[in-house]
C-alpha cells in the first residue's frame, strides 16, 4: 500500500470509502504527506486502512494454514468446486490454479491426472471440466479421506 521509494499511497483502498471518493479517479496514488495527515486526523480513514490490513493478514494466515495442514487433493477439489460455481467448466491453467493453492504446477498436474483417472474431471488446454461433482464435493469435505 505505501511505496516508500516513491512516498505515495495506492488509491485502491481509498476508493472503497465514500468519504474519500472525491479524490480524482485518475489519481492512482496519493502523496505520503496527505496519507500521514489523513492517518493522524481521520479516525474513519485510519479504520479503513486498518480494516484493509486486517483482511490481508487474515487471508494470508488462511493460505498458510491450508498449505501447512491440509492435503493438496482436498484443497484442489475445493478450489475446483469454488471456481466452477454452479457450472462444470473452469477456464484456468494448471499454473494459475497452482498459484492460487500455494503450490507448483507439477503437483497440480499429478493430482489432475489422478482425478481424471478416477473420472472426476476432464483436462483440456487451459480448461477443466468437472464430470463428477459429487465425488469432488465428498473429497473436499473430508479431511479423513484416503490420499489419492
Q: Which properties best describe this structure?
A:
single chain, 148 residues, alpha+beta, Arc Repressor Mutant, subunit A, 2 domains, three-stranded antiparallel sheet, 13% strand, elongated
Description of the molecule:
This protein is of the alpha+beta class. The protein has 2 domains: 65 residues, no CATH class; 70 residues, Arc Repressor Mutant, subunit A, CATH 1.10.10.10. The protein contains 6 helices and 6 strands. The protein has a 3-stranded antiparallel beta sheet. A 3-stranded antiparallel beta sheet has the order 4-6-5. A hairpin with a 4-residue loop joins strand 1 and strand 2. Helix 3 crosses helix 6 and helix 4 packs across helix 5. The chain is elongated and about 60 Å long.
What structural class do you assign from the helix and strand content? alpha+beta
CA gyration radius, whole angstroms: 21 Å
What coarse outline follows from CA principal-axis ratios? elongated
- CATH homology superfamily of the largest domain: Winged helix-like DNA-binding domain superfamily/Winged helix DNA-binding domain
Q: How much helical structure, as a percent, in the residues?
A: 40-55%
**Topology, number of strands:** 6
Which CATH top level class of the largest domain fits? Answer: Mainly Alpha
**Unreliable stretches:** none
Q: Count of DSSP helices?
A: 6
Question: Mean pLDDT, rounded to whole units?
Answer: 82
How would you spell out the order of helices and strands?
EEEHHHEHHEEH
Span between termini: 41 Å
Biggest sheet: strands side by side, in what order? Answer: 1-2-3
Query: What percentage of the residues does DSSP assign to strands (E)?
Result: 5-15%
Largest sheet: 3 strands, antiparallel
Q: Would you identify the CATH architecture of the largest domain?
A: Orthogonal Bundle
What is the name of the CATH topology of the largest domain? Answer: Arc Repressor Mutant, subunit A
- What is the count of structural domains? 2
Amino acid at each position: 500500500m505505501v511505496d516508500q521509494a516513491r512516498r505515495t499511497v495506492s488509491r485502491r483502498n481509498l476508493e472503497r470509502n465514500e468519504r474519500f471518493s472525491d479524490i480524482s479517479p485518475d489519481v492512482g496514488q496519493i502523496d505520503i504527506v496527505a496519507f500521514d495527515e489523513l492517518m493522524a486526523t481521520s479516525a474513519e480513514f485510519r479504520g479503513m486502512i486498518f480494516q484493509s490490513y486486517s483482511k490481508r493478514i487474515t487471508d494470508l494466515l488462511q493460505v498458510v494454514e491450508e498449505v501447512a495442514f491440509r492435503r493438496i487433493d482436498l484443497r484442489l477439489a475445493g478450489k475446483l468446486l469454488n471456481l466452477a460455481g454452479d457450472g462444470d467448466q473452469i477456464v484456468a491453467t494448471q499454473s494459475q490454479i497452482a498459484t492460487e493453492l500455494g503450490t507448483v504446477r507439477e503437483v497440480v498436474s499429478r493430482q489432475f491426472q489422478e482425478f481424471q483417472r478416477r473420472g472426476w474431471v476432464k483436462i483440456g488446454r487451459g480448461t477443466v471440466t468437472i464430470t463428477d461433482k459429487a465425488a469432488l464435493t465428498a473429497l473436499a469435505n473430508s479431511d479423513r479421506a484416503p490420499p489419492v
